[in-house]
Amino acid sequence: MELKIALLKGDGIGPEIVDSAVAVLEKTAEKFGHRFIFTPYLIGGCAIDETGLPLPQETVEGCLASDSVILGAVGGPKWDGLAGDIRPEKALLGIRSAMGLFTNLRPAKLYPALRSASPLKDEIVGDGFDLLIVRELTGGIYFGERGYREGRYGTEAFDTEAYSVTEIERIGKVAFEAAMKRSKRICSIDKANVLESSRLWRKTMHELAEKYPDVEYRDMFVDNAAMQLVRDPKQFDVIVTSNMFGDILSDEASQITGSIGMLASASLGASKRGLYEPIHGSAPDIAGKNMANPIATILSGAMMLRFSFGLTAEAGIIEKAVDKVLDQGLRTADLMGSSPDTPLSCTAMTEAILKAI
Fold it and tell me: In terms of Cα–Cα distance, which of 216, 224, 213, 188 is closest to 203?
């Protein structure tokens, strides 16, 4: 196969971790006889510095002309003083919207080799857990009407949470289909005891659940879900929830796996083209120090091979290579805990994974 892949390296550690993913993808392509054509485009703070915009039109057009997209990270203190509509993070919402990406898949897996890195007790994590958070990505409070107005106590800011039946149904179908391929268990997270948008969410999910009688379905309030994730994460298999709740819960899930540097994500729409990225940020404090953990971005590349291109064997080769280096005890700094051993650099971890492929 010959495939065109857009690279949005972004800011901070973004260029380092994307370069690692590219190296692994190139090795995999060589092994299986594919050809991947990588084209970089600007996004985030570096795009602001170059063009004055966090998401230049050239970047949007380049992503739409590609077979899929890999994103590093955006943002940093250099751009914190900018207005909200031109901050680097605005580019993330913009590119998701431009590509029509309404689904975010965030696996949270605790590898047995990393049990000691999890903040949870051994009796809670057991031999590990493997759950999938399905997050709605283009609706809700992040995309709702917002602004300033005169309120009861003077000037106030507002952000609006709104969901349609269509938006809920399409993300719900993704979650139910995912559950059918796993252990057929799904938990829908909302705040239906308080929010009208959540009441519609719950009603729509109940109606959808009737079409999947083989799937064990339940509802849970978001505050309880946050507690249950740390009390007993193994009770969950597929979690489906709104944009904001999914954003928060997936970061919580990342921490109980041992490190946010381990978790990949896929943003998908109606077509095969997707946006693949680690769920962590730009980590400006370690940018340029060759300390970043590249595994989340490498695993994001594996998700791209599986979900966008149907290259299951190729994705599996990468995932098994990551398993192998972790089983060998190889760690980047974020996975070390109190170990006296010297951690691997970003490039050294990448080389270890390349060797294992």
Answer: 188
24: pLDDT strictly greater than 90: yes
User: Of 137-151, 276-290, 301-315, 327-341, which range is least confident?
Assistant: 327-341
Secondary element (H or E) of residue 133: strand 130-136
pTM, 2 dp: 0.88
Q: What is the rounded CA–CA span in Å between residue 13 and residue 54? A: 17
Task: Give the containing element (helix H, strand E) for 98.
Answer: helix 90-98
pLDDT of residue 340: 61
Q: In angstroms, what CA-CA distances link 103 with 227, 290, 334?
A: 24, 32, 28
Burial 9-45 (b: 16+ CB within 10 A, else e): bbbbbbbbbbbbbbbbbebbbeeeebebebeebbbbb
- State which H helix or E strand residue 248 sits in: helix 243-256
Does the structure show a pLDDT above 80 at 267?
A: yes
Largest CA distance in the chain: 65
- Give strand ranges (E) for 29-112: 35-40, 68-73, 103-109
Q: Which two tokens stand for residue 146?
A: 């917002």
DSSP state of 144: S
| Cβ–Cβ < 8 Å for 106, 250 | yes
Q: Which residues carry out catalysis?
A: 142, 191, 223, 247, 251
Q: Is the pLDDT of residue 161 over 90?
A: yes
